[in-house]
Structures are given as structure tokens and as C-alpha cells.
Amino acid sequence: MSKRIYFLLILLCAGCSAGTLKTIDSTLFLSSVDEKKTFVVMLGTGTPVPDRGRAGPSIAIVHGGKAIVFDAGSGVNQRLIEAWKSTGISALNPKNIEHIFLTHLHSDHTTGLPALAAHYWWRRDKQLHLYGPTGTVALANGYEQFIAGDVALRTSGNQPVKDPNSYKIISKEYQTGGWQTSINGITIQALNVPHGDIEPAFGYKITTPDSTILISGDTSASTTIATQAAGVDILIHEVVTEAGLDQLDTFWKKYHSSSHTLSSELAGIAQKSQPRILVLNHVLYYQASAANALEEVKSAYSGAVILAEDLMMIQSLRSVSSKHAKTAVQQLPK
Which of 111, 165, 195, 307 makes the best surface tag, with the fewest CB within 10 Å? Predict the structure, then answer.
């Protein structure tokens, strides 16, 4: 596969009102994102449904030479390696990841954690920090039991080990949203979201000096998301395609409708919040296609929308002196 990197450049009229927002789409071949600015890497865009082209849910936000990871689905470690090797950005080297935030504890969002935490642990400079809902501490403790045999082998022989405790995860769990923390100039705010009968489940609003990003996590249509996403640079939101949902039996229709966001509902959220760009992620499409979700949302929302793919990099390039706000979307080779 060609190593050339593909960008879709979307120009958003920064001075337009919500009712007159215009988008201009053009395609360019560019070499890289601006590492001095915040950017997003869609590491995994999948769901619990097996998909050979999509790893489990995981997103990296890179700012100031550090990457913070949100969710750790199956394959996250490999996707980080691919992103790091394709770009040369050392922040994406798995052993340099220091902070992971979990939206909830469904297995599709967590099964990549052991591989990421175990990656070169004997060469880690710092221990991994894990944040999430109730149950996160037990998850971290379970990982430490899982890796105990490996730790014993590596620390009892002649292998160099930088720090014998660096395999351990420093974990913190929260019973509800509303908390926030700051790391490396990034503020992360946890939002309560309604994911069926799962409590708590979190979305995250991330603020850096040059970007605002909201990650919905798994959620049904949420007024909290609609409010908190107002004017953000990048809204990354899960979605269910209605063409696929219509093909399900009554039981699964009811479940998915109460636990996830329908494409028409997401269009309404975006219409209210007006993000600079809406990124469709964790797309449940069943017997339809992921492209159906994009078509359905665009039929009811006139703003900029893209369908997330693994190893897609997204960057908002705001400039006070510029008439336009640019969003560059870069697809790395898989």
C-alpha cells in the first residue's frame, strides 16, 4: 500500500451564523499534521460486532508531545504502533502512553488494555494511569494478576528492567460524572451519558489551548452532549444507522434505541450544537453499511460530517487572523 498520506480538507465559514453555515470540500495530498497543534487519532472505530477493518473503540488526543487515550478496545496497541511508525510521532509509541480514560466497562472498550499496559513495561519511564467509572480499579487489579507470571520471569532473571513496578496501573474510579482533571495542558471533563441501564457511563469533553473536542462514548441521545458540544471544534459521536436498525427484531430494536443514538437523533444534536466537524464513530449498521449512517445524518444536517476510519487523524486549525477555520483529516496507511 502506498505510504502517501491522504487528507480531506474541509473549510468552514468561521463568521457564518448557524443558519448560514457553508462547507467547502476539497482533497489534498499533504505530508503530516501540525505537531504544534492538538490533533486526534482514531485508533479504533469498531463496535462489539467483529469487523476485520476496524479495531475496538479507542481514540488518542495528542497535545504538547503527549498522547492521552480514550477507551482501549481490542487492537489499540497495534494501531498505536501503526500510527507511530507511519508518522514518526513518538507520543504514539505505546510505551509512552501514560493516561487512559474509559467511557464505560463494556468489553469492546477495554479488552485492549492488557496489551497496551504490558507493552514493554520493563522499559517504561512511568506507570500507566487509568481513569473510569466504578469497576475500573477492579479491572486494573485483574490485569496485574494476569501479568504476574510475566513479571516474575522478567524480574527474577538477568533481563534489564528499568523499574520493577512499572507494570502496575495507577487506577482511579468515579461513581458519577462531573469530575475533571488537567494533564499536560489538557483539561478533561467527564460527562454523565445515558447508555441504557449502565451507570455510570461517561462522555469526555477535552479542552486544549487550541481545540475543544467532545467524545460521546456510548450513549443514547443526550441533552448533556448537545449542550456541552455547542461550538466545539470536533464532535466524535457514536451512531446507529436506521436502515440497519429497521431490519432487527423488536427486542434488539428496543435495546439499541434505548442505548445508542439514532442517525436522525444525532443530526438533531449536531444541528443544535453546531460543531466545526462531526465525526461518526462506533457505527452500528447491522445488515446495512456504515455509509448509510453518513447518508442519513447528512440528509438532516447541513454541517461538515465525516465517517471515522481506523488511523484517521483529525486536526482543527483555528486562526484568529484567518477568515476560515480549517479541519484537516488525514488517513494513515493500514
Answer: 165
| 236 found inside a domain | yes
User: DSSP secondary structure string, 8-29?
Assistant: EEEEEETT--GGG--EEEEEEE
Measured in residues, the chain has a length of 334
Q: For the chain, how many structural domains are there in total?
A: 1
236, exposed or middle or buried, with CB in 10 Å at 0-12, 13-18, 19+? buried
| CATH at residue 168 | 3.60.15.10
Q: 1 lies in a domain?
A: no
Range of the domain at 294: 6-331
Any alpha helices (H) in 67-210, and if so which ranges? 76-87, 113-118, 136-146, 148-156
Taking CA atoms, 102 is separated from 76, 89, 96, 132, 207, in Å, by 13, 23, 18, 5, 17
Q: Is pLDDT above 80 for 183?
A: yes
Tell me how far apart the alpha carbons of residues 204 and 196 are, in angstroms, rounded to a whole number. 18
- Mean pLDDT rounded to a whole number for the chain: 88
The per-residue pLDDT for range 21-38, each reduced to its tens digit, is: 223 233 233 346 788 899
- pLDDT tens column, 199-226: 999 999 999 999 999 999 999 999 999 9
The total of other beta-carbon atoms located within 10 Å of residue 192's CB is 17
Domain presence at residue 246? yes
